[in-house]
Amino acid sequence: MSSKEQILKAVRNQLVPSVDLPSLQQDWIQYDDAVSHFGDVLAAVGGTAVVVEGVDGLAEALNDLPVYVEAKKTVSCIDGLMGNVDLDRVDDPHTLEDVDFAVLPGEFAVAENGAVWVTDAAIRHRVALFIPQHVGLVLHCPSGQVEDVIVNNLAEAYQKLSWQANQFGCFVSGPSKTADIEQSLVIGAHGARSLHVFFVL
Amino acid sequence: MSSTTSFDHPTNAKKFNQDQARTHWHDSALWFIREKRDRMAKSLPEWETLRECASQIKAHTISKLADYLEEFEKNAKARGATVHWAKDADEHNRIVLEILRKHEAERIVKSKSMLTEECHLNPFLEQNGIEVVDTDLGERIVQLRQEGPSHIVMPAIHLKKEDVSDTFHEHLHTEAGNCNPDYLTESARQHLRNKFMQADVGITGVNFALADTGGIVVCTNEGNADLGVSLPNVHIACMGIEKLIPSVDHLSIFLRLLARSATGQPITTYSSHFHGPREGGELHIILVDNGRSNLMNSDDYRNSLKCIRCGACMNTCPVYRRSGGHSYAATVPGPIGSILNPLRDAKHHKSLPFACTLCGSCSDVCPVQINLHEQLLTLRTEVKNQNQLPISKTMPMRITSWVFQRPKLYAWLGSVGKFFLRNLPRFMIYNALNPWGKNREMPEAPAESFRQQYAKRAKKNKPQ
Ligand code: SF4
């Protein structure tokens, strides 16, 4: 008998009382001002959020960041914003080792935990989300309302998601961090040393 | 502080307690995290609803685990992942080695996985000539020191920054005596980024596996799991069969509980959802039993399979906080470890159910509502029934029970005890013969015993 059969047999031959699944439709938390709550939580986990007008506003805001201005190698997956490394021309992700700043598209934000949902649909090498020294996530607000790209809580977030493709998706909440040395919080463990979220109206 | 080898918790705890200042520091470091967890729990009015839902989802999944495992395998395969089944640690390790051999892999990066720890994967791979680097900072620190993790979420919680500084000076050639956590973390960042770049294969654990989509979810704060698997072409994900949940939508419950319970964060920095391998790559998922199916049969212990390894029960446990994770001599220490380990290996771990004050704090914080302290109590009876208890425990119990059956004798002994407690010099009370006097003050002897007070009151209230 294969290990699979053995395990399944061991698991199936048990008298376990059956239990129903709970309903996921409950009174989950709502925020009066989800936008500012998102900003507060993101700040508490070490990130920043700003609202900008169009791609020009985005470029301006980026140029206010010293780490962007000083970046030698940049990646951009945002229409209308140029980086100097084209992900589509990179075959080996290892060559992204020295990227200083990556500007990448996010899909929506979650107020309760300051997270942004990012997938690799438009990011050819997913390591571009983890290996750069600094990361900017861009959330387009087509309706001109920031509220439209923010959900209150994770329950709402999962309702928005679908799982058709072989997709990689990640909730990113702030920059990479660790508290493994005497519980002192240090920002920039392996991944990005800073995380900026831009809501583009 | 070297790793402990004895399986006897009191012996190991005594060793830990030799350094009083450190014990106190360890205690308060963990309590600080427990307080953060409380603040986070209070930030959500639906906290108890979440716990209830999580507990039910896990109970439901366990009741239909075979079906969900098959569903998961089918869906994971449909997305291009390869699914392996391992009934024990040996088989798990062999499967990993086989995949590595096929790819002629020599260097592996691993992100924190208690399961591979449980299977002793590192020494096995090293014996086979493969370099394995743990990439979680805390894990890397203990790996360099050749110790095991002392906590499932904060593997190096037992170490001070001076210890880390010495370790890094020795292995990574950092400045001697520089204990700045920023400096040390930065050195580890450079060192580990090098390892990420050279790795042939990335190994991760799994926080949740999703039956309905065939996906897996891995949560880290450092991003080490993601870096480890997005550079090399091969990703091996190792998971216990209890990590399964029916639907991806259920993550909304578990991800809300996990980080809040573990470290008091609203969510981990990165919660990565993998569905199938990336283009041109391979994703191998190993489903491991290693004793888990045995737990399902027991109404008493089945609940322990709900554990999502958040570590909250350790952070709150008064015994864990004052005895250190290594004193449990097990991969999973603390309250949940004191259940899982004796159930797997009663002989070695028989002292663990007694490393508990039955205060119940672990059950109160557990995000999946495991009745930890009740299970620990049940386990004690079992250890006793198997005649595994040392005479130092059974003898006093027998004497006590004999005394309790003789109320007059008990009353007399009580007054004798009170007299001695009041009048004996300290050295006669606080010595090796009285373990209760170790590191704590004995209670003050009351002026009157309960029995005397009761008798007095009964007399006063007697209708004239
Ligand atoms: S038993 Fe509960 S509190 Fe302890 S690690 Fe598991 S889930 Fe967390």
Account of the protein in words:
The complex is a heterodimer of chains A (201) and B (464). By secondary structure, chain A is α/β, with parallel strands linked by helices. Chain A has five helices and eleven strands. Chain A has a single domain (31-200), classed as NagB/RpiA/CoA transferase-like (Rossmann fold). The model of chain A has no long low-confidence stretch (mean pLDDT 94). Chain A has helices at residues 3-12, 34-44, 54-63, 66-69, 154-160, and strands at 48-52, 74-76, 101-105, 108-110, 115-119, 134-140, 150-151, 168-172, 177-178, 186-187, 194-200. In chain A, a hairpin with a 7-residue loop joins strand 9 (177-178) and strand 10 (186-187). Chain B is of the alpha/beta class. Chain B has a six-stranded parallel beta sheet, with helices on both faces. Chain B has three domains: 21-294, NagB/RpiA/CoA transferase-like (Rossmann fold); 311-386, no CATH class; 399-461, no CATH class. Chain B has 23 helices and ten strands. Chain B is globular. Chains A and B meet through helix 1, helix 5, strand 8 and strand 9 of A and helix 2, helix 3, helix 4, helix 8 and helix 10 of B. The structure holds iron/sulfur cluster. Iron/sulfur cluster is lined by residues 261, 307-313, 336, 365-368, 370, 372 of chain B.
